[in-house]
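Run log // design_07
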């Protein structure tokens, strides 16, 4: 029988459309940087703060025109009135009026704001509030480090956690650190579309629970190892290498699954295959690329851990959050994939998904390399 060449099947076009939509979505979102708030408490009623943020984020928060030079006088006029909408300070439940002492450039991309909070009395419990996290189009988070502690533990303020309270001179409780960084890890896996796309490509080749557990466990063990190595600084890989390989892993995993689907040997969800076929290759892919994904997680966590910070509990909390988020998402997605896999539309639907994942992986790899 002759094969027609040059025109992909209909599910191929659907997959390519899905890939285009996924590629367009990350490009359209505003990638907010991480602000840094340094807090200095010296036993007086005056608390000094340094707020470091990207110029692009500050410009958007101020409602100024983007991608055009902003004269210093515009910042002079706009910053004092905007500050109460970004950050507030309380000491033992009492408001501490915040004033801008001065501001200046940190580098070509960032500004530093020198702030002063005037409290009624020397603070014992210091609370920072972050209303900037509620900005409708800018997801702005902040890393908070209070000095004067023997083993400073950083705190993260964002849309999900807009208030933190620290006991001056004491590090936060371990349970609080685990909770904060656990939420950060779970949130990262929930919105980390590249990690989820890779995981989806792996799960599409898992028809039974034992196979699913083997693949997910292999991915978990691999990225947990390199997350620990990367976050503690024992092994470091440059993001310029890590990020393209993470994108490429999506295409490789989906390509293997599509090859087996076309041969009729893919043990996909709902397939009902009686024998476990070809587990060695998926395990090699999930473990090998999982090592690289772990360095991606480590890069994010390292941004939240300043020099000298205690890394054990933040690392443990973040990893637990990642794993619990991953398990929850697989538990939700797998039954739905089983339902689709038992229908007469299983082959074209899974083929379209895999073609879309291949296109997504290759396109994002090219964007991250260029």
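design_07 sequence
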């Amino acid at each position: 029988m002759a094969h027609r060449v040059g025109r992909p099947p209909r599910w191929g076009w659907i997959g390519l459309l899905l890939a285009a939509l996924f590629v367009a979505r990350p490009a359209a979102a505003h990638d907010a940087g991480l602000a840094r708030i340094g807090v200095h408490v010296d036993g007086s009623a005056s608390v000094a703060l340094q707020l470091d943020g990207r110029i692009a984020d500050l410009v958007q928060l101020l409602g100024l025109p983007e991608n055009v030079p902003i004269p210093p006088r515009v910042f002079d006029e706009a910053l004092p009135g905007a500050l109460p909408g970004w950050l507030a300070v309380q000491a033992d439940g009492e408001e501490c009026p915040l004033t801008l002492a001065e501001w200046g450039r940190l580098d070509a991309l960032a500004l530093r704001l020198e702030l002063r909070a005037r409290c009624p009395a020397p603070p014992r419990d210091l609370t920072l509030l972050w209303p900037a996290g509620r900005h409708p189009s800018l997801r702005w988070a902040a890393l908070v480090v209070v000095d004067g502690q023997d083993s400073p533990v950083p705190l993260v303020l964002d849309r999900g956690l807009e208030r933190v309270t620290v006991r001056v001179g004491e590090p936060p409780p371990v349970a609080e650190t685990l909770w904060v960084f656990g939420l950060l890890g779970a949130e990262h896996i929930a919105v980390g579309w590249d990690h989820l796309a890779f995981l989806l490509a792996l799960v599409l080749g898992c028809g039974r629970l034992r196979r699913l557990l083997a693949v997910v466990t292999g991915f978990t063990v691999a990225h947990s190892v390199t997350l620990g190595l990367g976050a503690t600084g024992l092994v470091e890989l440059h993001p310029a290498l890590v990020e393209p390989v993470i994108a490429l892993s999506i295409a490789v995993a989906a390509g293997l699954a599509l090859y087996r689907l076309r041969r009729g040997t893919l043990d996909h969800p709902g397939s009902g295959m009686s024998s476990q076929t070809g587990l060695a290759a998926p395990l090699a892919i999930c473990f090998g690329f999982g090592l690289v994904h772990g360095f991606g997680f480590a890069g994010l966590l390292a941004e939240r851990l300043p020099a000298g910070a205690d890394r054990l509990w933040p690392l443990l909390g973040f990893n637990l959050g990642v794993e619990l988020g991953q398990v929850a998402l697989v538990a939700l997605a797998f039954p739905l994939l089983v339902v689709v896999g038992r229908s007469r539309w299983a082959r074209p639907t899974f083929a379209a998904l895999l073609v879309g994942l291949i296109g997504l992986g290759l396109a994002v790899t090219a964007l991250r390399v260029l």
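Residues 1-31 have pLDDT under 50 and may be disordered.
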